[in-house]
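Why this split exists: single-chain examples teach little about how molecules sit against one another. For that reason, every record in the complexes split bundles all components of an assembly together and asks for one structure covering all of them. Below is a record exactly as it appears in the raw files.
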Amino acid sequence: MSANMNKHLTEAVAENWVKPYGDTMNDGRVQLSFTLPVALDENAKEAARQLALEMGLDEPSVVHAEDMGQGFSFYVLYGQCKHRVDLSRIKVAKPEFETLDKDGINALIAEKMGRKMVVVGACIETDAHTVGIDAIMNMKGYNGHKGLESYHEVRAINMGAQVDSEELVARAIEERADVILVSQVVTQKNIHLDNLTRLSDLLEAEGIRDRVILVVGGPRISHELAKELGYDAGFGTKSYAEDVASFAIHEWTKRHAA
Amino acid sequence: MSQLNLDQGQIDRARESARRIAHRVFDDMSQYTTTTVERATLRLMGVDGVDDNQIPLPNRLVSHLQEQGLLQHGAAAVVAGAMAEHSLGAQQIAEAVAAGKLVLARPKSDKTARQSAEAIAARMCEHVAAQRAFRAQQIEKVGEARTPWLYLIVATGNIFEDIVQARAAAEQGADIVAVIRSTGQSLLDYVPYGATTEGFGGTYATQENFRLMRAALDEVGAKIGRYIRLTNYCSGLCMPEIAAMGAMERLDMMLNDSMYGIIFRDINMKRTFIDQFFSRMVNAYAGIIINTGEDNYLTTADAFDAAHTVLASQLINEQFAYISGLKPDQMGLGHAFEINPDLENGFLWEVAHAQLVRQVFPEACLKYMPPTKHMTGNIFKGHVQDALFNVVSTLTGQNIHLLGMMTEAIHTPFIQDRFLAIQNAKYVFGTMRDLHEEVEFRAGGRIERRAQEVLGETVGILADIEKIGLPAAIGRGTFADISRTMDGGKGLDGVIAKSPDYYNPFPDLMLAGAN
């Protein structure tokens, strides 16, 4: 294994260029649609075409153009993307752990922690959407994946939506939380970034940042973004309770092994 | 129209249970008023504006009455008494109190104060009645769309940008425009003031914003020959005040549920039950169509398994609405197309649920909500899901049709998202206009059996709720799998026990004239 890895590292990584595929390899065909804040006429249509050129699309064609009233017009275009990227040079950050099933997670918590793992969760500040935090924490879960409340080795406390960061931190201290789970759904004007930064600053100020595993989830959240904001992990769409719990026990074990 | 065979005896039993459930809550709550009911009363008497710290004067005045130990008597008579004594208007009284120049006390003559409060209230009722009559005239004059009415949302966070989008939406075919509020407004214990250009996920509901949007929609409606209805959110900690503002500014619809705040915003149960009664009374008098929020249950609970909780809640909402003087055609009872697309025959069950609701509430102005929970970001599939939703709506004769957006779950809609949603709905409604007259539900078939099953479960759950009472049922997580308690949640501190001489002029005036 280690010999293989060394060999791998010394080898030049083979390039692996990709671009969009329509019906022929490397034809670069893409579709896009947008609105222009002008009434439809031939000039507006030409403007739409030229915009596509500026975006890096060769041979753009406006296949549909329609006036929308009130000085707006709508366009559907096809074109050939000029650009390509080298897949071999891409390395997206993702939390490194193995997702276990519920029984596996319960067993691991029992073995490593010897007590229940305490998870306090909330959708913070003005964000009123409980759907994300409920999907991960509530008994019922989401899409056939049971939530953390159903894990007998997890004590899951779901504080719901519109919870002040202060309130969340106070509860986390009171409950001796191992994990703080934050959901952010509303991202208009990047308010989620302000909210998330505020929470992490507050944890630093209280001196408990190192004691908790801080996890954020939401439809527009990536692990990369979460790391940038000083969180331990971020989970986007198609994440379930077992993903979050697997990460949490993995991280806990890693920290306590040191 | 093709009908499902349903047992009318079961429907009657369910409705009777719901009636007793609602009346018991109403009776238990009638000994209380709330700070926002009193603020709404003051607004209806002409108090408006804010102090130097942007605190609304109705809040300042009600806080003052609380400090003076007067609020339990009702704000109206105390303020009317002070108006007579000092020869000031309601607004001047509020300003004087806010400036610390006036301390209010019990009126010298309770009788005179009440008479003068009633006269002021009667003038406001005339204004609201005139707004209602003006709406009817406008609809007569410019015309209105046939149902299902297309309901669109604007949510730019800036009222002036909202107006641009709302006008475009109306030109493209929207019949109803809802202006989304800033996320979090439901938990503010005051109503912001003036035109607002900020907010998240929408801008604030303020009286000035109502007025600006109403004027813009009147203008575009006259141009395109269709009265455009305006909707806002009469929910949260200030339900009665929002209702008062909407009544004064001629809103046409209000999201106004009897239990939504309790369940989804963790607002105290007592507070909500008291506030919903007053706010609905104002909405009833103003000719406003309320929209209830049962669709939300299905975003947390499963749409198939929890179908009977939707019908049960609609029946309870209907009874609360009757108590407040609302007529069936003002009841926009809510439900939704939220069954998991992977469920085999899911479309049949959607038809069954929608048709069941239609038949249980034949005269109601039903509000049908599009898929949200199972929208994925695959906009192409989403457009198809929305098209299927459009089919059910026209096939089952829904009234208020909230347009589904292919970009649901991605962002607040772009202008083209709305444009394409309207095209989708118009295409389906047009091409299937009379389909419902041409097909029949197979007697004893899958759809009919499913509707009967949901109705049966509804009778059962309402009987259970009746046994333990509505608060205890909510405590058990009956709706949306969320549990709340009588003394939990926000806003309990604004619940005030009425003294025996409590007085408010509006219920007598509005409940008598709501028809």
